[in-house]
Design a protein that fits this description.
Layout (H helix, E strand, L loop, with lengths): L1 H4 L5 E3 L2 H10 L5 E6 L19 E5 L3 H14 L5 E7 L4 H17 L3 E7 L2 H13 L4 E4 L3 H5 L1 H10 L3 E4 L2 H6 L3 E5 L1 H16 L15 E6 H6 L6 H6 L2 E3 L1
Parallel strand pairs: 1-2, 2-3, 4-5, 4-6, 6-7, 7-8, 9-10
Antiparallel strand pairs: 8-9
Helix pairs in contact: 3-4, 5-7
């Protein structure tokens, strides 16, 4: 990795893939993961949450509560919810996918929902997956913070609109782009947390002694234009709780 060769003092990685790439490039240079989307202990990134032990620390989205709440909100928005579509991003480490399913599948089962998982690795795969979701009459599609989704956000949202599928996003930016709803950690709060980690490292604290943190500020965003376009009435209770409403 070029940044390692430039002699920087700390690497800041956005997302799980960036964190894995940074770790592959160096096992000595301190790395701060702004948002690691899986279990850093199970994935071998850290020895423990309290004392990571290596050269990586940061924030993780390890949260069964977040998985439960996002599906509950989706059900509240889409009363007829029965089928939910999810992408399996083949460019993501398999353990990360397995971890996400271990959190969410029990939620689907407890609410009487069925999840349809389709594998994607390219733009063409995404197009085929959205067409298949439409053919199967999927009621909603989950949009994760994954590279394949970020690269194809516009076409995913366009296809979802055509198929009148709700979209639950893992970050507020997707709602700004046209997704129906997101229930996700505050990006501003994650940046501040990452800055604190970097500050500690620059003051001489080894990253292996800085605990991994979990987000405490969770934001709800809703896009009323999208709701109207797919024929959904947003309950007043959700509007009252929303931190961001796109009119």
């Amino acid at each position: 990795m070029e940044l390692v060769q430039l002699g920087v003092e700390v690497l800041v990685a956005k997302g799980g893939n960036a964190t894995v790439a940074a770790r592959a490039a160096t096992t000595t240079l301190p790395i701060v993961s702004l948002i690691y989307g899986g279990d850093p202990v199970a994935n071998g990134i850290a020895a423990s949450f309290a004392r990571p032990g290596g050269n990586i620390t940061g924030n993780t989205l390890l949260s069964a509560e977040l998985a439960v709440k996002s599906v509950q909100l989706l059900k509240e928005l889409v009363p007829k919810l029965a089928l939910v579509g999810e992408f399996i991003d083949l460019t993501t480490p398999p353990r990360g996918i397995a971890f996400r399913r271990s959190l969410r599948d029990p939620v689907y089962a407890s609410m009487g929902l069925q999840a349809i998982y389709l594998e994607v690795a390219t733009t063409e795969d995404v197009q085929r997956a959205m067409a298949e979701f439409n053919r199967l009459r999927v009621d909603a599609v989950m949009l994760e913070r994954e590279l394949i989704v970020e690269r194809n956000t516009a076409q995913i949202l366009k296809a979802a609109m055509v198929g009148r599928m709700a979209t639950m996003a893992s970050q507020k930016q997707y709602v700004e782009a046209g997704a129906l709803v997101s229930y996700a950690p505050s990006w501003a709060a994650l940046i501040r947390s990452g800055a604190r980690h970097v500050d500690q490292i620059l003051k001489g604290v080894p990253p292996g002694e800085i605990p991994f943190e979990q987000p405490t500020t969770i934001e709800l965003a809703i896009n009323l234009k999208t709701a109207a376009a797919i024929g959904l009435a947003v309950p007043r209770g959700i509007l009252i709780r929303a931190d961001r409403v796109v009119q």
